[in-house]
Amino acid sequence: MTPTRTDNTTLPYGATPQAARLATLATRAGTITEAQLQGTVEQMATLLGWRWYHTRDSRRSVKGFPDLVMIHPGQGRILWVELKSERGRLSREQRAWINDLDATGAEVHVWRPADLVSGRVLAVLQNRAS
Question: For the domain with range 17-125, which CATH number is right: 3.40.1350.10, 3.30.470.20, 3.30.70.20, 3.90.1150.10?
Answer without folding.
Answer: 3.40.1350.10
